[in-house]
Design a protein that fits this description.
By secondary structure, the protein is an all-alpha fold. It contains seven helices and no strands. Helix 2 runs parallel beside helix 6, helix 3 packs parallel to helix 5 and helix 4 runs antiparallel to helix 5.
Length: 216
């Protein structure tokens, strides 16, 4: 069994660059894209959350998240990421990396949608459910991040391995850029379709929800 596995790895090392290499770049790269989008977009969302849920009536300034709430919303995903790296790294060795990679993507998709559907009768309730779902989103990201790079390194040949892995990691930058672009698009679309009074009067919480969910 071990000999057959070594033969497969050797064949991949000496193989010429083919279409399946670029397919692997796209698949693994999209994992990095969504990782970056989901992690860094929340910094844009917190601006909206502060204006929506923490504005005092009559205050001439827009609301902002209290420091402890902002820290929780921004940082909880990183706690999940740490747990996800440990758990899914171990599970990938046990069950196979491609299979576990699919599991992490599914967890990310479900958690991202659930984050956009965060519910509660008060600001505290919405923040609590958002943090809960973002923790599990972080768990999925923690598993996806190392598995994407590992899968790409296993498929690449010796000559192009460095370039292919760099291409996968470069998708992280596109994910951050995409988050900013999608934020502008969604905000502009809501502003054009639903012209509303200034933030002081009954702000809507709809714009931030598709922004969070669109990462997956």
């Amino acid at each position: 069994m071990a000999k057959e596995q070594l033969q497969v790895l050797n064949a991949l090392d000496v193989a010429k660059t083919q279409w399946y290499h670029f397919t692997a770049i796209v698949i693994a790269g999209m994992g990095f894209f969504t990782d970056a989008y989901d992690i860094f977009t929340i910094s844009l969302v917190t601006k909206l959350l502060g204006r929506i849920y923490y504005h005092s009536a009559g205050d001439p300034e827009p609301g902002s998240l209290p420091p402890h709430v902002s820290s929780a919303v921004n940082g909880v995903a990183f706690c999940g990421t740490f747990a996800g790296q440990l758990f899914f790294g171990w599970l990938g060795d046990k069950m196979g990396r491609k299979r576990v990679y699919g599991m992490t993507l599914m967890l990310m998709c479900l958690s991202s949608v659930a984050s956009g559907l965060s519910f509660g009768k008060s600001a505290k309730g919405v923040m609590t459910t958002l943090c809960f779902f973002r923790f599990w989103l972080g768990v999925g990201i923690g598993g996806d991040y190392p598995l994407s790079a590992t899968i790409m390194s296993e498929y690449a040949n010796k000559k192009t391995r460095g370039a292919f892995i760099a291409a996968v990691f470069a998708m992280q930058g596109f994910g951050i850029l995409g988050g900013g672009i999608i934020t502008l698009i969604i905000s502009s679309a809501f502003k054009a379709k639903f012209p509303a009074p200034a933030y002081e009067v009954d702000p809507s919480d709809q714009p931030f929800r598709p922004l969070i969910m669109s990462g997956d």
